[in-house]
Structures are given as structure tokens and as C-alpha cells.
Amino acid sequence: MGRRAALLLLLLVLTTVSIVQCERVRFNTEGLSRESFPAGFVFGTASSAYQVEGATDVHKYGRGPSIWDTFLKTPGLEPNNATGEVSVDQYHRYKKDIDLMVKLNFDAYRFSISWTRIFPNGTGKVNWKGVAYYNRLINYMLEKGITPYANLNHYDLPQALQDRYGGWLGRQVVVDYGDYAEFCFKTFGDRVKNWFSFNEPRVVAALGYDTGFFAPGRCSNCTQGNSATEPYVVAHNLILCHAIAAQRYRAKYQAKQKGRFGILLDFVWYEPLTRSKADNYAAQRAKDFHIGWFLHPIVYGEYPKTMKNIVGDRLPKFTPDEVKMVKGSIDYVGINQYTTYYVYDAYPKTPCILSYQNDWNVGFAYARNGVPIGPRANSEWLYMVPWGLYKAVTYVKERYGNPLMFLSENGMDYMGNLTLAESLNDTKRINYYKSYMAELKRVVDEGANLFGYFAWSLLDNFEWRIGYTSRFGIVYVDFDTLKRYPKMSAYWFKNFLLRNNH
Fold this sequence. Notes:
Strand 16 and strand 17 (about 485) form a beta hairpin. The termini are far apart. The chain is α/β, with parallel strands linked by helices. The protein is built from 20 helices and 17 strands. The strands form five sheets. An eight-stranded parallel β-barrel has the order 1-2-3-4-5-7-12-14, surrounded by four helices. Helices cover about 45% and strands about 15% of the residues.
């Protein structure tokens, strides 16, 4: 045996030993368990179609291209020119992944349906292979006791609609989205009782049309786009898409199918850098431009006054009929909460380029008096600040009438190039989940109308603009073999979620 072969064998043995040890260790949950939360509190994991499914070949699987398929063809855009064409191949391996959820004692799985897997051209002809896949996925979940939570769109708009009328910029998208949503209700709603219109529509509008960092890559400094107007037009259309789907569900399906309809919104907590009135106003502006952009119209029928005052005529207006359709268009709301930043007042002293982000008139800080706001994960944007979760949920509770809600995403990442043995030993992730779960319990105990928590994510997968250089999963995926290896955090959850755990 050569030296390299011997080293590989040693690594395999050590890795196998560490996996076995993970299975046997009873992890300390510091007094927290499933029983720390109200009876029936739901614990699940979350994913999105483009990030996990693979199976993108239109000739073999019938799935049409989305704007992300097109966007990622730009050479050099992604680390190692990565794409989601294969990702973790959940299309073929969904049974293994659901079996893992069962093994780890999870209750539910929040997945997304790929619009182009159902309608390759956005409208018209149905891809029945795609329908059959989602039927298999849903049926197997139910067979194994995993409750499906279906999200209708997670960033992946059909490219055909982008080509036809500018995608989210065109008002026709509201009609086409409504038809797509209704098809899903009619086809899957006899078994799916938890529906969502969008995951993080703010990210779609801001990163896709203000900075151009996400598909379709439009901005004032990009090849095409206008950061001063397009983010607001897109957000307006997304809200109307959400509302028309809610209207159709309530009018034709909800009474018979007995399900619920909501939306999934991202929310960074913004803490004033100082106690000054200016910084407190800045923090409120940030919250209004972030979660308020979508939740305020849905709860109150109008955009936040802060936004109206600053954006002026660039902010679209709802007609009286649209207000009726939008206001109250959720049965519940999912909050994706990961991190917290300090913000301070930064009203421009001189004229600046008009854009959604510049309209906030705030600056961001990640330390105060030399003390970091929290340890940083692998992702540049992700600081681990558990108290921010408590404040974010409390804010939604107090500002928006304590709606029925759940934590629909929460997690942290490690670098993607660690060895398998290093990746399995993810104690920092365990500490993240412990600390955030403690804050979650605190806000539940104080009366927040919370019914569940979903970790991001079960598996390492394709992480949008950072590709495979980041690992959020509690299960390690070897991207060469696609074999799954539960990490220590997976076994922490398994222990945490044991029923009658004392």
C-alpha cells in the first residue's frame, strides 16, 4: 500500500469513528428540549427547489430554464462557475433525505415548487413529469409522518416570462402567477395544508433590481436596469401576485382543503448604534424599508409612511380594489431571521444616486466601542446575534398585531472547503442553535403567537452567489459522490427533538 493510499484509509477510519461517536453522544441542550415549547410546536427544516433538486435537463425532465439558469451562465460570476444543475440531486434522492428528517425527529419540511418544472414556459403546457415528482415527494413525506410546507416561489422565475414581458417588472406576471398558484392548489392541495406565495420577496426586488447581485442582474450600474424605480415596481407586483394567490385560494380551495396561506419574509434586526434620536430614527427606517415594505401593506393596506415620504412618486400606489385584495391576505407569516446589525443615521449631505438601498439613509456597523456585535459565520453578512431574534419577533408581534407566525429559516454556515472530519465537528453551529433556540423560547413565553421553527438547512447545498463555498447544512454532502453524512448538529437536533425528553 502506497503512502497516499494509507493516508486515505486512515482518514476514512477516523471519519467513520467520528460519525459513530456522533451517533452515540448525548448532546447537552442546556435544559432546552421539545417540551420547552408549547404542545404541538412544529420543528422542521427548509430548502428551495433550485438549491437542492438538480434534474434541470429539459429533454430528460421537462423542466424549463429559470432566470437563475440564465444568470449563472455568465463566466466567472460564481466561484468555480458553480450552478444548481445537479446540486444535491434531491429529485432522485428525496426518499433518503426524508428518511434523514425522520431519523433526526423533525416534524415538517419546507420545500419550494419550481414554477418551470410545472410550466416550462411559465404558462400553457404542463410538464407532467414535474407534477409527478412533486406528487412523489409529498406522498412520501406524508407516508413518513413529515408535514409538507409548500412555497410557490423561491427566486426562480421562468426565463420565458422574463423574455416575454420583463418578468417581475411586467403587470402580466400577476395573472400568470395566479394561474400557476391555482394549478398547485388544485393539484397538490388535497395533501398540502401549508402554502406560501414567496420566500424573501424583498431579496428578489433588492438584489435582483437594485444591486444586480442576484438574477436577473438589473441595476443602474448594470447592463440594464434602474435602481431608483425597478425595485419598487417589482416589489409592488410581487405583493399583488401574493394577494391574487391568496384570493384564489380562499375563494375556491381553502374551505374544502382546510389549509393556510402565507408568505415568508426575511428580517435582519437593526439596532441603533447609539442612543441618539437620529440613530433610533435610522433603525426604524431600516425596519420599514426591510420587513415593512411587504408586511405593512399586507397588514395595513399601505406602504409605511417612512417609505412614502422618502420614495415619493417612485413608489407605486395600490388602487382601492388592490388594497382590499392585499390587506389581510395572510393566515400566517414566516420570518427568516439569521443576524443583526447596528445602524446609524446617514442622511446624505450631498445629492446621491437614487436607489432602494440609498433611500434608507442609514449606515451599517458591526461593532460598537470596539466590541463586535457577535462572532461572524463564514458568510460575510452573517453575525451570530441571538438576542436579535428575540427583538425581531417581538417587533413583529407589537408592530403588526401579533400575527400567527413561525421562524421559517434560521442557521449559520461554515466554509465549504473543510474536510469531512472538520465539517462533522460543527460545535459552533450547535452553539448557534442553542442560543437562538433559548431566545425563541423567551419570546414564546412572553406571548408571541409562534407555532414553529425551521432550520436552514437539512443539507449542504447550492448557496446562490457563493455556490458550494458555503455549508449551511446539519448534514454534510460530498458534492462528488452526493453521499450524506449527518454532522454533530444533526445529532444535537435529534436529541433536542426527542419526545418526552427529560
